[in-house]
Amino acid sequence: MTYLLYIAAALAEIAGCFSFWAWWRLEKSPLWLAPGLVSLALFGFLLALVDTNAAGRAYAAYGGIYIAASLGWLWLVEGVRPDLWDLAGAALCVAGASVILFAPHGA
To answer: Which Pfam families would you find in this protein's record (predicted)?
Structure first.
C-alpha cells in the first residue's frame, strides 16, 4: 500500500508541477494553473497518508519513487524514452527509498 500511495503522490505532484511548466514554458493558458494547484494539494494529502513515524523519512523515501515516476512521465507524456542510465539511476533510487522506508529504525 505504501508504494501505491507514493506512486499516486508522485503522479499528483508531477501533474501539478507540469501545469506550471506548461503555462510558463509552453505558453499555455493560465487556466492550466487551477487543476495544477488542486493536483499539488492532492499530492500533499496523499504523502501525509504514508504510514511512518517521521515526516522527513516519508519525504526521503518518496524521493526515490518520485524519480522513477518522473521518468515514466518523461516517456508517456513527453514522448522521450529514458535511456539505460536513466533507468539504472532510478533503480538505485528506488532501492535506496526502500531501505529508508522498510529498515528497522531504532532497533
So the answer is: UPF0060
